[in-house]
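Exercise 7. Predict the structure of Troponin I type 1b (skeletal, slow) from Salarias fasciatus.
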Amino acid sequence: MPEKRKSKISASRKLMLKSLMVAKAKEELEQEMVEKEEQKANYLEEKAPPIQTGSMSLAELKTLCEELHAKIDVVDEERYDIEAKVMHNTREIKDLNIKVLDLRGKFKRPNLRRVRVSADAILRSLLGSKHKVSLDLRANLKSVKKEDTEKEKTVEVSDWRKNVEAMSGMEGRKKMFDAAKGPNQ
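Solution. The predicted structure, encoded as tokens:
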């Protein structure tokens, strides 16, 4: 486990900094609230200027009320349509979330294990069984069998000792020449 490093700032300094940060955040939040209220008041002044009803007659007031009620009805219809769309979308989102959870439950992922795969098996799976590619480097090397080399040594030694007389003269040299030439061909 790694050792915990000591903080370079003391605990009292940390506490003071945290309290300063909280105070600053509180100020900014209050400022934001004031700005929102100002924006709301400005918007309402633009869109709905104050109505002077003192100089209006009864008929003018009725027509004004009818216009306002018509505008309210239009806004209520739009609000209802938007709420219906929102409800429909939330229902769809819930249904899709349920489907996702169902699919997760049906297909449990197995714990993966490490598997040793040879290079030949990887190539076969990638290239298919038609291509014959071998990465067995040991097969491409020349193999030297110990038994063969031992037999050759013993044969040479035994031949030399036994056939000293047979190898002497021209016939012996011819036999040695033929023996040396034979395995290479």
